[in-house]
User: Which sequence fits this backbone?
């Protein structure tokens, strides 16, 4: 079977840094993606890691370790608009999503 | 980026009726589209993979006779919820990948919120 584990909720302060971890167990693996979803909206793509290492896109970075079946999303200089749910997703021949992490940001 | 449009955004129907949701790729051709369902505060659950010109591949536990998927062209896939019941009320989202280059990115439609009375 396939499973992805990520924390259900994380709380951080505006301006701080937060890391959302994701571990996965899948039969196949091409890469790990991260998506952001605001309440009532559709998911939007943030990043994709196919190889080990860190990918940086502005305030967001994503890391992958294939040997550990582990990845994380790092959000820096948190802003109130970053309050949302964040999903890791494994790409096999289809894309399977984790349960999501709800990020709460305090002023 | 590529644009995927979904229609309708909201639909309210009576129990027992059927509802059709359309998903279009506006500026690219999508040989494969994916249909997800999401209940409040939960994850996106893959329902089926829609392949242009062939039958959809359904995930385990998804009734193919209840959730009819048609991918008649490279830019249009439809999901029909047949004989809808209140437990089918959910947020249905389609998505597609663009081209042959794998960036791992899915482009999502705006979603369709179905309420069955």
Assistant:
């Amino acid at each position: 079977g396939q499973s992805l584990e990520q924390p259900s909720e994380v709380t951080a302060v505006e301006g701080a840094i937060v890391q959302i971890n994701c571990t996965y167990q899948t039969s196949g693996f091409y890469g790990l993606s991260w998506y952001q979803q605001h309440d009532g909206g559709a998911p939007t793509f943030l990043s994709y890691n196919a190889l080990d290492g860190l990918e940086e896109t502005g305030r967001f970075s994503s890391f992958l370790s294939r040997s550990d079946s582990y990845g994380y999303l790092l959000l820096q200089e948190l802003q109130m608009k970053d309050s949302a749910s964040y999903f890791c997703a494994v790409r096999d021949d289809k894309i399977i999503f984790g349960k999501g992490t709800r990020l709460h940001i305090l002023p | 980026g590529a644009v995927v449009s979904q229609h309708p955004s909201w639909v309210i129907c009576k129990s027992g009726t059927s509802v059709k949701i359309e998903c279009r790729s506006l500026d690219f051709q999508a040989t494969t589209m994916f249909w997800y369902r999401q209940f409040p505060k939960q994850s996106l659950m893959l329902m089926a993979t829609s392949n242009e010109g062939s039958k959809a591949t359904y995930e385990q536990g998804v009734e193919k006779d209840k959730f009819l998927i048609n991918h008649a062209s490279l830019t249009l896939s439809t999901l029909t919820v047949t004989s809808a019941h209140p437990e089918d009320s959910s947020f249905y989202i389609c998505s597609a990948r663009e081209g042959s280059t794998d960036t791992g990115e899915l482009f999502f439609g705006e979603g369709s919120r179905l309420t069955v009375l």
